[in-house]
UniProtKB/TrEMBL annotation:
Domain Nucleotidyl transferase intervals: 7-289
UniProt entry tagged with the keyword Nucleotidyltransferase: yes
Keyword Nucleotide-binding attached: yes
Top-rank taxon, per record: Bacteria
Organism: Rhizobium mesosinicum
Protein name: mannose-1-phosphate guanylyltransferase
Gene3D superfamilies (UniProt xref): Jelly Rolls, Spore Coat Polysaccharide Biosynthesis Protein SpsA, Chain A
Pfam families to which the protein is assigned, alphabetical: MannoseP_isomer (PF01050), NTP_transferase (PF00483)
Recorded catalytic activity of this chain's protein: alpha-D-mannose 1-phosphate + GTP + H(+) = GDP-alpha-D-mannose + diphosphate
Amino acid sequence: MTQKIVPVIMAGGKGTRLWPLSRATAPKQFIQFVGDKTLFQETLVRVSDPALYEAPVVVTNEDFRFLVAEQARELDIPLAAVLLEPVARNTAAAVAAAASLTSEHFGKEAIIQMLASDHEILADEAYFDAIRTARDAAAKGKLVTFGITPTEPATGYGYIEVGKQLPSGAHEVKRFVEKPVREKAEEMLARGGFYWNSGIFMFPVAELLSEMQDYAPDVLTAATKALSRATRDLDFTRLDAEEFAKSPDISIDYAIMEKTSKAAVVPSAFKWSDMGSWDAVWKTGLQDENGNIAAANTTVVNTRNSLVMTHGVHLAVQGMDDVAVIASEDAVYVGPLRESQEVGKLVKLLAGHKKTSKLTETHPTSYRPWGGYTSIFNGDRFQVKRIFVTPGKKLSLQKHHHRSEHWIVVKGTAEVTIGDNVQMLRENESVYIPLGEVHRLANPGKILLELIEVQTGSYLGEDDIIRIVDEFGRT
C-alpha cells in the first residue's frame, strides 16, 4: 500500500497586506475573498482525500485556535492535532515541533507535507501529480520543495535553480536565489531553469529531524522540549512557552533547505499564488470581459481592470481603471492595483495613531469557542452586537459589574439562565439581564442561534466578564 502523507498546515501568520479585510486578529487565511470558502478551508479541502492523506496537523497560535476549530468543523474535516505556538519563531521551530509530534502519532517513517494556509492553488491533476512525485522523492530520503513555473519576472518571490532529474521525477537543487531585482528576474526567466520558491515542502520525518540535529540543533532542542512539556487545552496542544521561546527566529529555508545535501525540487506547473496583495487576488480571480473582479453587493460602471469587494456596505464604482476598492464593515481602502504591495506601509501608518490603530488589529467579527459576535454599532454608554452560538454550545456562567444586557432572538432557540431561573426563548422573543445578575446563554437546538444584544452601562469592555463556570477552562 502506498504511504499516506501527513499534512502540516501553517496557520499562524498575521499578515496585513490585504487590509481592511485582513487584520492582526483575523488574517487573510481565515477570510472569505471570492467563493464560499476561506483560504484555510480551501487548504483543508486539498488535503482531505483519505486515500492520499492522513488527518491534518495544524500549527497556529492562541488568537486563532477557535477560528481553526470552527472552520474545520464547518467542513466536517477532522484534525489530527492543533499545535499552539506561544510565541512566533518563524517556520523552522514550527516545523520541528510538528515533525516531532507527527513522529509520535504516525511513526518515524511518516512523510509530512508542510503547506501554508494562505495560498491560492488550483488543485488540478498537475497539482496532485507534483504531490505524488514529491512523496516518492521524500520516501527515498529527499527534503523536497516545490518550484512554481514563473509566469512573470516577479520580484516578490525567491527562486530555485534546478539541476539534473532524479529517478523519482524530482530534480536536484542547484541553488536558492533571494528575491531579485527586476533585471535579475528577467535574466533568470530568459535563461530558463529557474522556478519560484513556493514555500511548500515534503519531508521524511526521520531525515528532517536528523538534518535539523546537524544544521539547526538549537531549533530542534527548543521545539522538542516545548512539545515534551506541552499541555492539553480542549482539542489543542499548547507548546511550553519558556522552552519554545529559546528557539532562534529562523525559516526552514535558511535553517535547513539551503544547507542540506538532501534537497530536491519538483518543478510544478499548477496555478499558485501566495495571495500577498490585492493585485495577486485580482490576478488569481475570474475576471469579466472588462478585466474586473466585482464581488457580491457591488455595482461597477465604465470601469476596467479593477478589483471591487465588500464585506459591508454596497459599493458603486464608476469610471475607474486599475483600482482596488475594498470595504469591510468598518473601513474602506481605495488605491491603484499596481501599488497594492504598498498597503503594508499604509497599515503601519494607521497602526501608529491611537484613533485608527484598532482598525488594523481587530475585526468587527470575533470568534469564540462557542460561536462569536459582530459589533454592529457603538455609542455613548451603549453598543449593539449580533451574537451567534453553534448548536450544542453554551457561553460561560457569568456576570458583569458595569453593564446590563437585552437579548432579542432572531434565529433559532436560546436557553437562557438568569439567576436560578432557566427559560427557553424562540424567534422574536426577548429578555433583560440586569447589571450584576448571574446569567448564561446556550444553544440547545440543531441550527445556529442568532440574537441581537444591546448593552448599556458605564463601561462596555470585553474584560468586564466575571466567569463563574466555563466549559472551555477560562474561569
